[in-house]
Amino acid sequence: MEKGRIVILGAGESGVGAAMLAQKQGFEVFVSDFGAIATQYKEKLQELNIAFEEKQHDADKILNASEVIKSPGIPDSAPIIKAIKKNKIPVISEIEFAKRYTKGKTVCITGSNGKTTTTMLTYHILKKAGLNVGLAGNIGNSFAALVATTDFEWYVLELSSFMLDDMYEFKADIAVLLNITPDHLDRYDYKLGNYAESKMRITQNQSSEDVFIYCADDEETLKILKSTKTDAKAYPFSIRKKIEEGAYLENNNIHINIHLNDQLTMSITELALQGKHNIYNSMASGIVAKVLDIRNTTIRESMGDFKNIEHRLEHVAKISGVDYINDSKATNVNSTWYALESVGSEVVLIMGGVDKGNDYTMLKDMVHQKVKAIVCLGKDNKRIHEAFEDDVEIIVNTFSAHEAVQVAYHLAKKGDTVLLSPACASFDLFKNYEDRGNQFKTAVKEL
User: Fold this and answer.
1) Is 122 annotated in some ligand binding site?
2) Which residues bind ATP per the record (predicted)?
3) How many CA atoms lie within 13 A of 141 on its CB side?
4) What integer is the mean pLDDT of 213-217?
């Protein structure tokens, strides 16, 4: 039987993974990228003998597809997507496609902030408990590539709203929604409600056999829950109130109750991840672990020895009594708010870069309380000066990671924290946020 022709738009990690799986399943495969394809991905496609094009979308080679798999980064407003939809060709995400070819179960994690950390922590606990588990999604590994090459019983997937938008039949066995705060609103007609609906797609197709874990303290989540029906068994978590079934905080202890006779209690001082937002992340991961009947001792150990990802509140060094923290992954205002919330002491904050129309008002109180100086790292720092000139006495402009670290070193005193948490994209001075974080770490180590 003829399988049909699959066209994949975007030849990054997700696109090349989808191509590998489609080829393995016997489809005719064509990959098209409007930009240049990175060498590693081009070599992979050549090695597998998969047809591709770059720096263009040739409509003749695309509009004869039986199905299109698109990269999450391509908006529906792109001309090629409009043409595909006009021709009534189905457009799906790589995650949707991959799920068709695995019997493995999924833990799916989404949220505006904290989803990478929670995904990594959940994977860490499940792996330590001896489950046959894979890690994929927005975190950097292609789910389709894993399905094509391995056979896991469980997959922990980090899902962005863009991925969820192109998922239809997909069902999460365990769905986690951490929070909903304004991000990427340009893709949602600048309406927070549209973005919230997108996030709630994580519960679609769930039955009473499935589980939905959410934050009972998050206003936008509670709002969208009123208008979204889900049959899944719900386990909320909260640091403000006692929760009968789920997780809550009391006297600096996390309590996780899934089965009434088997409660997990753990002091927040034992957690590897510190700061209020990380209590939420740890609770969400802990509920997943309890749902899967993982032993309390394993959960405690895993939550205590977890190492966070690089460039996310990563402790770089302590020099002359000053802590240096790399949070280069904080490319929006919200992430920087969380970073400031999780550090104690007086802070010298290194921030700036390409500003995506940031609204800095939500940072003002936190900056006023904790920040003694701001070191701007970007080509145009005017908006940062305007936003914080009444809250911080010292605001300095710098144009390289080395210069920013040198200035911060002179401004910081023993007991302070120098925090790189830019709230902006990095493309004005760096290749990406990793490059920015690595240059910061190099500069700190040269002090």
Assistant:
1) no
2) 111-117
3) 17
4) 97
Residues 6+ apart with CB under 8 A from 430: 353, 401, 436, 439
Dihedral over Cα of 100, 102, 104, 106: its sign:
negative
- The token pair at 379 is 């080509």
116 annotated as belonging to a binding site for a ligand: yes
How far apart are alpha carbons 196 and 190 in whole angstroms?
A: 12
Phi-psi region of 267 (alpha: psi -120 to 50; beta: other; left: phi over 0): beta
Q: Note the pLDDT of residue 199.
A: 86
Provide CB contacts within 8 A for 64, sequence distance 6+: 5
C-alpha to C-alpha distances, 380 to 277, 352, 353, 377, nearest whole angstrom: 30, 8, 7, 9
Task: Please give the Cα distance from 276 to 261 (Å, whole number).
Answer: 28
Domain ranges of the chain: 5-92, 96-305, 314-445
Query: Between β-strands 322-326 and 314-319, what pairing exists: parallel, antiparallel or unpaired?
Result: antiparallel
What's the pLDDT at 193? 67
Which top CATH class is 96-305? alpha beta
- In order, the DSSP letters of 61-78 are HHTT-SEEEE-TTS-TTS
113 is in an annotated binding site: yes
The per-residue pLDDT of the chain, averaged, comes to: 92
**Beta strands 51-54 and 394-398, pairing class:** unpaired
For residue 27, is pLDDT > 50?
yes
Give the 3-state secondary structure of residue 325: strand
Q: Is 114 annotated as a binding residue?
A: yes
CA distance 250 to 441: 37
pTM: 0.79
DSSP 186: G
On whether 437 is known to bind a ligand per the annotation, the reply is no
Q: Does domain 314-445 have CATH number 1.10.260.40?
A: no
β-strands 67-70, 91-92: how paired?
Answer: parallel
| pLDDT > 90 fraction of the chain, expressed in percent and rounded | 77
Q: Is 308 exposed, middle or buried (0-12, 13-18, 19+ CB in 10 A)?
A: middle
350-388: string of b/e by CB count within 10 Å (b at 16+)?
Answer: bbbbbbeebebeebeebbeebbbbbbbbbeebebbeebb
357 marked as part of a ligand binding site:
no
Tell me what pLDDT residue 182 has. 64
112 is in an annotated binding site: yes
